[in-house]
Design a protein that fits this description.
Layout lengths: L1 H10 L8 H24 L5 H27 L12 H28 L2 H8 L1 H14 L5 H20 L17
Length: 182
Amino acid sequence: MSGVFFIVLMQGSVDLSYNIWGTLALLGAVVCAGLYNIYSKKSSAAFTPLEITYIMMWAGALLFNGIELVRHTLSGTLWSMLTPLTDPAVLSAVLYLGMLSSVVAFFLLNYMLSKVRASQTSAYLNLTTVVAILGGVLFRGESFAWFQGVGAVMIMSGVWGTSYFGREKSTTPLPVKLSGHR
């Protein structure tokens, strides 16, 4: 996490007093993500990653579409609720965000949580910053600053260290195979 903080602080874009509600919302998102990782890990003992993702996506679809139904009904605009989906740009954005950024990404997260500890998964999520930097440089032509390189190395070192030093040590001895001896 220190690599992420380093990059953000070096960019000079941090002013926590600027918008306290945004800061609190960000803190809430981090807490929710941590709780999600813990509960998804616990759920993986009884359900497959596909089942967890399926229920999660349906719960989100029902909740958020329900909210929109109520909002449009109260404002008298129920029939215009689906109008934005007639725009190909909106439809392609919804499909991309719905399929790749939600279903596929959360399936992969749930799969990872079913295989490794939640603390290790959280460390890997810090790679998002490295991917965002590389994506900005490669696809958007953004500049690459020295502090981004230093921060990326710090992030990758932290992920490696968490993975390497966080491995569970086997307490059972390896079986010994004796050939020809009884």
